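Quiz preparation item.
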């Protein structure tokens, strides 16, 4: 890395990022389904303007084996140190450690790309921390479509946002809401609506499942006005979301069926949305 780059302000990726010899320094918190996919994309050359400079994981030995298989030689560091040698920190870890990753990142004026959007609602003061220090919190589109259109509609008047999610039973097992309400879905033979409420309530009751609803709410009319239904469907093989937005500029009616990864809670397109975002961050042409 050149001296001119290292002397740049840590507030953002340098303005000449994307030019020859300058790369975005990426740290990854959590090398599960999404983190490993992003690391693999970087190692394979899919993101030529990105380098992984640090990784954090709960199981260090397992993480090292995964990185070695991928061909990534990035050092494994404690969570609190991830941001020190990075311009961007990718959070794809359990929601319980969200703040440990994001707070030091935005306090240092860096960018935090977060997948645990639901956890952001419980730590929304981090938005002010980012603003105060010149940092940024970025929520990728993840498993949804049309967030740009929802955001555009929100510049005028949105009357209502409703979302209906259907998931395979195994993708919802163990959700805190189901445990608290003693809702047993293990032996379902037909679809069952297990939740009706707001995106904020869903983020608490289904922290590993409904980050998509929170992302939708942040793009639109907020987590307390975005309405949600969750169905456990024993016949489903994909994570399905149907969204209807009524506004004064357009009526949006969107459906997506995400193919799950080996982790039934995560769709394949989630990691791809992060890879696309990183690729577009410094691209000379950006669409959307």
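Solution:
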């Amino acid at each position: 890395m050149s001296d001119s780059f290292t002397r740049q302000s840590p507030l953002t990726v340098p303005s000449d990022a994307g030019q020859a010899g300058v790369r975005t320094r990426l740290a990854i918190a959590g090398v599960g389904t999404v983190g490993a996919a992003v690391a693999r994309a970087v190692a394979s050359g899919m993101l030529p303007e990105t380098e992984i400079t640090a990784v954090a994981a709960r199981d260090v030995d397992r993480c090292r084996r995964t990185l070695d298989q991928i061909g990534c030689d990035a050092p494994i560091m404690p969570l609190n140190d991830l941001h020190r040698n990075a311009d961007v920190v990718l959070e794809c870890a359990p929601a319980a450690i969200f703040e440990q990753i994001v707070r030091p990142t935005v306090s240092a004026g860096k960018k935090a790309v977060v997948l645990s959007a639901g956890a952001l609602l419980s730590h929304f003061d981090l938005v002010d921390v980012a603003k105060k220090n010149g940092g940024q919190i970025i929520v990728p589109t993840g498993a949804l479509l049309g967030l740009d259109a929802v955001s555009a509609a929100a510049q005028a008047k949105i009357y209502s946002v409703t979302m209906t999610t259907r998931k395979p039973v195994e993708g919802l097992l163990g959700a805190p809401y189901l445990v608290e309400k003693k809702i047993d879905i293990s032996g379902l033979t037909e679809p069952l609506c297990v939740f009706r409420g707001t995106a904020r309530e869903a983020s608490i009751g289904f922290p590993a499942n409904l980050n998509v609803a929170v992302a939708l709410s942040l793009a639109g009319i907020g987590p307390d006005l975005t309405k949600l239904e969750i169905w456990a469907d024993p016949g489903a093989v994909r994570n399905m979301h149907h969204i209807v937005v009524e506004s004064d500029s357009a009526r949006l009616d969107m459906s997506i069926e995400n193919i799950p990864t080996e982790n039934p809670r995560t769709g394949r397109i989630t990691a791809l949305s992060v890879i696309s975002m990183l690729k577009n961050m410094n691209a000379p042409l950006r669409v959307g």
